[in-house]
Write a structure and sequence with these properties.
2 domains; disordered N terminus; Chloramphenicol Acetyltransferase; globular; single chain; six-stranded mixed beta sheet; alpha+beta
Length: 486
Amino acid sequence: MATSNNTTNSYPLSSSQQDIWFDQLLHPDVPLYNIGGYLRIDGPINLALFEKALNQVILENDALRLILQEGETLPTQTVADPVPLQLNFYDFSETANAHQSAQKWMETEFVKPFPLYNQLLFQSALLKLSEKCYYYFYRCHHLIVDGWAISQLAQRLATAYNRLGDSQPLTEQKCYSYLDWVKNDQAYLESDKLARHERYWLEKYQTLPAPRRISRQYATSFKSHTIPSQRSILHLSRSCYNQLTDFATTNQVTTFHLFIGVLYCYFVRTCDRGDLVIGLPVLNRSTAAFKQTVGLFASVSPAWFRFGTQLNFVELIQAIRQELQKDYRHQRFPISTLNKRLKLHKEGRRQLFDIMLSYAKHDYDIHFNGKPAHAVYFTHGFEQNALAIFIEEFHQDDGVNIYFDYNLGFFAEEEIERLKARFEFMLAEILQKPSVPLVELQIMPEAEIHQILVEFNDTKVDYQGYRTMKQVQPTHFQDKLHPIPP
């Protein structure tokens, strides 16, 4: 997109932007914070109307026009004046294997690093696959938007396009400036609330949790400092997901609490400890106006659950809910500041956790002139946590995808496939046995148990005797149970 040379005044980066900027500097020329994907639109698209609608969205949402400029210590940001763009258009309809060709083009384009300074951090294009199928491709740097903002942009683009298609006047919608959040953030950093939040986190982590025994045993296979990641996908049918949602509602928790509970049970059992520290992205939008503002608000909360293994699953998820309610009241405190206060670098640790769980319930049930659209997110392929799990619920009637993005320095493919199979098995197990103590809850599918017994057939143990994980944990099985190399 072209921009004019005229910009507004300079502003500092918000706390969330600073965290991302610092981390991006550690991994130059790597698309570590590229986010986005595409909308598949199952119907014809009028290119001129689509372009006009997109320009309207860019006009109304200043985060898409943010430009970073180098400063003496930290960069500053300005908002470029809008200049009508000419939407990039690519016609694959006459190409053999149009869908595969378009996918390859988008995947290649998506992982191109953004220059950080003096340029827009947003790119989009419209791809034609046939008269009745189009892809709207978009990629952004995380510095300017988060996942919530991307779903807002898709909704607003569809709304603007439909109004144009109905020959309605394209009146400017109520605009919410991201700069309002930047100013709010600066005020927060100078407030008593910051000190109060800091006390909460320092008290919670006055004793640091022991680091997990995750080894970078595969790191020597890579020459680069920034080791790539790989993705494995678990698909849950809508009927299966609805059962989980109903179970959560019955027990006065959310589906998010339920998924955290399954991970807690799995990792405390397989790593033989009574706690779990996990990174949880938080929305960070405390007002109605901020919920309507496109931009980067999200940050990461280091959640520490210390419940042992004697609770049953229902007790566990209710305890998780209560713990998170306390954390969320203090979620604005920047995680980078917490890491510095805790002096993690002296412990040889980058942060408190090496596993992240993101739950994205976003509304992509949109249409373009009555034709439905379907959202797909891409991965940048450089997840630096040992494991990041993304649960995406984008369409009310569709199934739910769970993405396991694992760093190849920590995990091999077969280890993640084993973890994924166990995770899926446990989702069914907790529905059937919610009152069983965690220490006795089975976490391995029967097929895996059978395979282990075959491999250890010299033990001459009755297979039926290994129905629970408590029974399947003799010393000679321990290496089979650990999903993480010790």
